Each structure stands twice: as structure tokens, then as C-alpha cells.
What we know:
Blueprint: H1 3-29, H2 36-42, H3 47-53, H4 57-82, H5 86-105, H6 123-142, H7 154-174, H8 183-196, H9 225-243, H10 246-253, H11 257-263, H12 267-292, H13 296-311, H14 332-356, H15 364-377, H16 381-384, H17 393-403
Amino acid sequence: MTAIARQTIRYERKREAILDAAAMLFNARGLSGTIIADVAQSVGLTTTSVTYYYRRKEDLAAACLLRAIATMDALVARAEAEVDTGPARLTRFLELYFGHLADIAEGRAPEGINFWDLRALTGLQAESSMTAFVALFRRFRELLRAPSGPIFSRIEQNARAHLIFSAVIRAKGWARRYETEDYPRAAARMADILINGVAAGGRTWAPATLELAAARGADASEVSRDAFLKAATELVNEYGYRGASVDRISARLKVTKGSFYHHNDTKDGLVAACFGRTFEVIRRAHRVSATVADDGWSRLCAACSALVRHQFSEDGPLLRLSALSATAEAVRPGLLAEIGRLSEKTAGMIADGIADGSIRAIDATIAAELVNGMINAAAELSKWSPATTIDTAAGLFVKPLMFGVFSPPDQLRATD
């Protein structure tokens, strides 16, 4: 081996080590909470050594994102090559994907960066990363266009692809609760729910309409507390935690920075309050659905439809849970515990439906993760399906999960 070849190998190994360390730190602290010096320390290098490879933190984050996108794209390509129907491709992809997650958990593969902070990037890094991310999304959309499958309109393709894509991205988080030897079972159960839905035979799509808006009290101040919560939620969802700066929130409300701090102690405190607002809306959906429906299926459809409609209402959106990675470490455990309790409430509703026969026999825990992920992802549905409205959102996004992502768009009944 020549000296140049050895030098190239050393360069690549060091670069990969930097990317491995950076991905873990970005996942744990978010883009805003990580600096290049942290990455350098974690791999035993100086900051100058790291900047030799990646001059800025944004360059490093973009490289991590492009590597993660390429890894997932390769799994989709392999599934496409091995089987030729949409359901079989999705099933095979999930087998491969959970196998990759097992490799990460057992140290055979590096941890990939989460995609949550993608919109926090700016400039050329944002452009290249988003271009690659959109190309990956289109690969998922092609899963719905297998020759033997139903024919969907573009808006239906985009909505269902977003549903699948978001579920896959989110699975990386909840899969950690399982032993790696159980990953194949989790993959199979996730595939079963996505492909076959949750409805027992004979169920119809007629969700009850729920009212989730809370009564607003009089507020004599220049701008209400709810206005700050709504603006901060919209901006965190759109630009990520870092991108939702105090200046940007103030500009959205047309108030001064001084006015922001008159109403809010810190941005961290405001974002924590946004989580509280989101959690309360979800609780309200659970409570109200129990008063208008008498079986688990009907309650689940009513609650999910109401929450997805809420994302498009003047009272929406809900805060995307991806903001959690950038919250203050002191409050994060409490938020995680609250998210866990809400997930258990959803799983309980599904288990009730299985018990009363309105929901087919499925894994209630995994189904709850998919349901909660779908509600969370609805905050971005309009970005992938711009023609979606408050009146069409539930049919485009909730119904496919209830009956299966490959079910015909005009299907009203599930089959036995």
C-alpha cells in the first residue's frame, strides 16, 4: 500500500469518527446545543483538527444529514430491487430498517443523525440537505405506485408517503424500548398496521366531530399569552428550535423584543409552555371522544380526526415533538414522562377497541406510536400536500392509517 493510500484511509477513518460523534451529539443536544469543540473533545481532537474537515458546525450537520439520507435511501433501493409490490416492498424495507437499527444498538453501525433539525440549517447547507431529503421522500412515494396497487392522485400519494416516511423516522426513537432480538417482530407488527390498518371487519369511516378549542379569556395586554404560544409553536415547527429566535417570534407578533421579555422570562420557558398547550389539546381530544362514541374504534377515529383538523385550524398547530431534543435538560425528563403517559392513553383506547371487537388484533403499543406519530406529522402535511385543507386533512391522513396505506382512496369499509 502506498503512502498516499494509507494517508487517504486515515483521513476517511478520522472523518467518519467525527461524523459518528457529531451525530450522537446533535441527537442528544440538538443543533443549537452543540458546538464543534464538543465534537472535537468526544473524539480526542482539537477544534482546529475538526475544522480542517468541516469549517463550520452547519457544514458538519449537513454532512451528517447527507450520510443518514444516503443510508436510508440504500435500504429503500434494496427493498425495491428484491420485491415488486407496494406492500411487499414496505414490509421488506421495514425488515431491513429495523435490522439497521439493531446494528446501531449493538455497535455494528454508527448512529445516524435525526432529521429534526433539518430546517435549522441555512444557506447552501440547507439547500443541499433539503434536496437530498426531498429525493428520499420521493423514493417512499414510489412505494405507493407498484404496478398491481391502487391508483392514487398526487395529493393522496404525497399524504400517504408523508405518513409512511414520518412513521419510519419516528420508529428510531421508540424501537430502543425493545430488545434487539425482538426488532424483527416489531418491524413485522409495524408493517402489518401500516398495510392492513387498525379497523376490524365492517368498520366505516364516519368520525364524530369534536370541539377542541379552549375558551379564551379576556386579555387587555398588547398581545395575549395564547398569541405568544401560537407564534412560538408555528416558528419552532417551521424553523426548528434554534431558528425560532426571540427576534423572529417578536416579529411574527409585531411586538418589540422588550415586549417579548415582558410577557416571557425565557424562550426555553415559552417552548415548555407550548408543550403544555399541546399536551392539553391531546388530553381534551381523549376526554371528549369518550363522551361521543361508545367503542374504541369510534373514539380513536374521532380523537385522531379532531387532532389532525386542529393542526389546520386557527387554534393550531400542535408543537412537533422533535423540539424536545433542544429543550433545556432540566425540563426534558418531565416532558418525556408526559409524552409517555399520553402514549399510554392512546394505547389504552386501542386496547379497548380490540377488547370490544371494533379494532382488529394488533400490537396496541406500536399502533399507539404510529397514531401519535401521525398526529404529530400532520403539522407538516401541508408542506408535502399543499392542497390539503381542514376539511380534507382527516380523510387524507387519518383514514389511510385506519384502513391501511394501500387501501383504495374511496374505500369505506375494511374487509375481514
